[in-house]
Amino acid sequence: MHQFKELLIWKKSRLFCSKIYSITATFPSEEKFGIINQLRRAAVSIPSNIAEGSSRNSNKDFARFLEIAIGSAYEVETQLLISSDLGFINEKNTIELINLLEEITKMTSRFRATLL
């Protein structure tokens, strides 16, 4: 069992969630139940799956939750690109968020590989 609060991937993905909440607060209000909700839920899923997986008794189970977290990261990336296409987020913020997300994804992938 791992202490999720000590994992850098959990800390970074939690910070990333805060950034997603801040940026989506600037989106059009009619998107409240659309892309805002989708982005926030997928972003929250990343650290949530890391935390849940850390409680599992086997590394194989933990690795599966990390795989789900990576899937959520790809979902967020897609939604950020769509938000950019729609003009809800500027290019600078899109690049910054995607770069942070890629860092989290790579770190999670490398950590996952150590568990298998």
Automatic annotation (TrEMBL):
InterPro entries: 23S_rRNA-intervening_sequence (IPR012657), 23S_rRNA_IVS_sf (IPR036583). It comes from the Bacteria. Pfam families: 23S_rRNA_IVP. NCBIfam families: four helix bundle protein. This is Four helix bundle protein.
